[in-house]
Design a protein that fits this description.
Helix content is 32%, strand content 16%. The protein is α/β, with parallel strands linked by helices and 165 residues long. The chain folds into two domains: 84 residues, Rossmann fold; 51 residues, no CATH class. Helix 1 packs across helix 4. The termini are close together. The structure holds zinc ion. The site of zinc ion (ZN) has 8 residues, from loops.
Length: 165
């Protein structure tokens, strides 16, 4: 990842928040995001980028943001929302997919299979060898068919971009 960013997404952008995590970015879901709450702390954090569907948040922000530090998302579909973020910020092709917890955004760590035995269904335990766990919310991940499906969806989104490496 060429640059370290932290995304702050508003109440209507839960899916976008999740997909940013899937491709490896730190992304915080902030349902309380409003012009006067959070805009300021985010502005002070040089890595923070606000993603919002609220025009008033962009127009009435008490803070004068630099270009692209606050992005008004103009589509309802997460695929187009992600495409907009990728295009505006020129995000590179994801090199760190599935390294973060989709639920809470924390970095995942590989875990010894025997340690999670009682937490996953028996057939999953027997048919998979590598497991990752979120140390924060304790959710367990393994590469299943949904990984392939999500990878394909991401590849499709990036295929819309002619010049991104
Ligand atoms: Zn988690």
């Amino acid at each position: 990842m060429s640059k370290k960013w932290i995304f702050f997404t508003d109440a209507t952008l839960g899916k976008l928040c999740k997909w940013l995590r899937i491709i490896g970015y730190e992304s915080l879901y902030c349902p309380q995001l409003s012009p006067h709450r959070l805009a300021l702390p985010v502005a002070l954090d040089e890595q923070g980028i606000i993603l919002t569907r609220q025009k008033k948040l962009v127009e009435k922000s008490p803070v004068q943001f630099e270009a692209n530090r606050i992005i008004f998302i103009n589509d309802n579909r997460w695929q187009n929302q992600l495409l907009q973020v990728i295009t505006v910020l020129q995000l590179p092709k994801p090199a760190a997919m599935f390294t973060r917890c989709v639920k809470c955004g924390h970095i995942l760590t590989e875990t010894d299979k025997t340690k999670i035995m009682i937490h996953v269904p028996a057939f999953i335990y027997q048919s998979h060898h590598r497991f990752h766990r979120c140390e924060q919310c304790e959710r367990i991940y393994w590469p299943g068919t949904h990984f392939k499906k999500m990878s394909d969806q991401i590849a499709q989104i990036f295929s819309h971009l002619p010049n991104v490496e």
